[in-house]
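User: I'm putting together a small comparison set for a docking exercise, and I want a reference complex before I start. The sequence is below, and the ligand is thymidine-5'-diphosphate. Could you produce the 3D structure with the ligand included, as structure tokens?
Assistant: Of course. I'll restate your input first, then give the structure tokens for the complex.
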Amino acid sequence: MRGRLITIEGIEGVGKSTNMAFIQSILDARGIPSLMTREPGGTGLGESIRKLLLNKEQQGMGALTELLLMFASRAQHVEQVIEPGLAGGKWVICDRFTDSSYAYQGGGRGLPLELIARMEALVLKDFCPDCTFILDLPVETGLSRAENVGAKDRFESEHTDFFKRVREVFIARGKSEARCHIINADQTLEKVQSEILSVLTALLDAD
Ligand code: TYD
């Protein structure tokens, strides 16, 4: 049976990694094979693109170039890793996907969301995640959590207003797309995970 694609989204510092590991542990407990991957990246080529995108020396990168690189990484990722994984019956847990392009390149950088929708249709056709968790936190809380973790990359160096615009688009998508579930990440990990578990259980039981 074909696997499912689960994506995890949110601004910096919302706890994506911890919750991805949690999701994988739930799947493990049910004996469902899964793989964890990330964007930008997830393939050799994608990881090289990621280095370009995150490199703080690339200050002059235009918003459209940034969007194209995100989708170049994604095209390779879907073809080489995600689609074969799903076809082989694996559940794929992906750290960020197209919703991040809407939020960061659309909300953050100001590219028209309509343009991103056209790019999505061109690159992915009707391929899209089965379930998306949008972990949500006030920007100030997320940024102060993220601050403790090493040197800042090109995105992490952005200002609070940038992340506020990113968050707004995540929330809007969370409300408008049925596959999206907004999880309040500003509560105990136990509560966050119990909300994730109930969404995941419904998805598992639907199979
Ligand atoms: P990630 O490794 O998830 O960063 P973090 O753990 O700091 O949240 O993602 C790298 C950066 O790439 C992140 O700042 C968001 C950005 N990004 C986009 O701007 N657009 C996209 O489509 C994707 C997938 C990521």
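Residues 100 and 128 are 13 Å apart (CA to CA). The chain has eight helices and five strands.
User: Thanks, that's exactly what I needed.
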